[in-house]
Amino acid sequence: MALLPDGRALPGKLFIVEGIDGSGKSTQLDMLRKWLISQGYLVAFSEWNSSPIVRRMTKRGKKKQLLSPISFSLVHAADFVDRMERQMLPALKAGAIVLADRYIYTAFGRDVARGVDPNWVREMYSFAIQPTVAFYFKVTLEESLNRILAGRPTLKYYEAGMDVGLHEDPYKSYELFQGRILEEYDKMIDEFNLQAIDATLPLLEQHEMMIEIVEGHLESALRAAQSPWQEVLKSEGLQGRYLAHQVSGDSS
Amino acid sequence: MTQVNFYGYGIPGFTKKRLPGKLLVLEGTDGVGRSTQIALLREWLESKGYATSATGLKRGDLAGKAIQRAMQGHTLGDTTLNLSYATDFADRLERDILPSLRAGFVVLLDRYIYSIFARAQVRGADPAWIRSVLGFALIPDAVFYLQADITHLIPRVLNARGFSYWESGVDFLKGRDYYDSYIEYQTRLIAQFDAMADEFDFMRIDANKGIHDVFLTLKKEINSLIKEMKPPKRKEVEKRLAKVERAKEEVKTKSKQDGKGIAEDQAPGEDKSKKVVKKENPTNDKERPPQAKGDESEKKGAA
Question: How far apart are CA A232 and CA A236, in angstroms?
Fold first, then answer.
């Protein structure tokens, strides 16, 4: 059950995934999404740092290195609340399943690793909906670094935690920064009752563990056919030539 | 459009009393399935040989982009936005819909002036004023009103794109709750459409039913409307083309006899065969090609 801050239950279900970079959480969430859709459920999806309005501000701040630990935290909270009001909350009120890639725990981990007060950031997000289940993909620092750094990617300034001043080499800084975040996550498992999953297990094994937990919460979740026109095309002998050109967002 | 009638003052200078095409409108609130049905109908009509075009609100060259930009920035006042919608509609009517009707197209419209009325009226516009402004609108051959309950709309909207700012009426309703606003706004919009159903003689179609049921109903109704404009049979097309060929031969022979070049009135580089085909068609003075693509390829195949 997803809960409002005042304890009222929402009819929808909110499943979220957390974990450090390279923990495989997005892959698992995508697999869960496909499974839920194949079961006929209506699934809404929301991703960290994706609000079209706020994202521009975040992008600019990151590119020009304008962000301090406080403003970094605030701008992500603005992104979160925009997505909550426009994507997650309405879908949950309607009784749908909502999947979120990263949630408030990402802020609690990263922002505290940057040095902001743990209580300040927790109080700021006090408006957040309590998820039905929060999955935490637990992986060792070594394993995550292996996965992320294997191809020697160019690390971005904030991604590497360069603003924190831990080390002047981006790779070394990234290691130290991720280590700090991992520590924060580990502390949160009990604090927020996170559902830990061993992210070093084979993908399918993790997937099945997730399904087993999710299945217990699906009663009365909203269902909808994904492509209801397909049957029409078949029986009418049409190809759907113009269906692809449908204008989306055609609002009055 | 057998008979041309306007709701109000009409279009200055437009005196045609009859148009060979058909103007068919699908109306209904957001997420009720209008565009899906239009996509299906268009393909079905074209496969039967009817030249078909489709358009909808905010798709005109003149004002479509500007309205979309203004809506993104939430910057226009209510009356400005209403008049922008009217501008867009006038532009599409004069430069797209009317030429298509003159050329004998079946024109499928995703929303018409009724949607503009509904969205303006829930925001407090004077119904008489907005009706007068849009009095240059043609009375369509049929208005199909896809009627659905809000409980049927919610899963569809969530599945398609989620609750949007404008579809939830957040621009003028109190509070920031998208879900509650959506219910409130769509309920009010549906009430506006229901009230207009009698005023404008809508044909009500139960859109709580599945896509296939709605499509079958629309097909049946449209079939009886377009019966009289049956596309020419293949044999007839072949006969006509043969006539064109004969005419071409005659011109050639004649010009040889006259010792002149090919037809005098022909501009250099112009494809002659196309021109002659065009002349054969009674609607050659229109901007749009008078036949659907399918028909053209059929002609080429026959020739």
Answer: 6
pLDDT digits (tens, 9 = 90+) for B150-193: 999 998 888 887 888 888 998 888 777 899 999 999 999 999 99
CB of B26 within 8 Å of a chain A CB? The answer is no
- Flag whether B128 is in a domain: yes
Quote the domain boundaries for residue B128: 22-229
Among candidates A87, A229, A245 on the partner chain, residue whose Cβ is nearest the Cβ of B162: A87
B224 and B241 together in one domain: no
Could you confirm whether domain A2-240 is CATH 3.40.50.300? yes
Closest partner CB to B158 (pick from A96, A240, A243): A96
The domains of chain A are located at 2-240
- Whether this prediction's pTM lies above 0.80 is answered by no
Give the SS3 label for residue A67. Answer: coil
Closest CA–CA distance from residue B212 to any residue of chain A (Å): 5
From A109, A164, A101, select the one nearest A134 (Cα to Cα).
Answer: A101
Whether chain B has a CB inside 8 Å of the CB on A8: the answer is: no
Number of domains in chain B: 2
User: Could B35 and A228 be called an inter-chain contact, meaning their C-beta atoms sit closer than 8 Å?
Assistant: no
Tell if the CB–CB gap between B178 and A85 is shorter than 8 Å: yes
B135's enclosing H/E stretch is none
ipTM of the complex: 0.70
Residues B190 and B257 in one domain: no
Report the candidate in A176, A151, A146 with the shortest Cα–Cα distance to residue A164.
A176
How do residues A193-249 score in pLDDT, each as one tens digit? 999 999 999 999 999 999 999 999 999 898 887 677 888 898 899 988 888 644 343
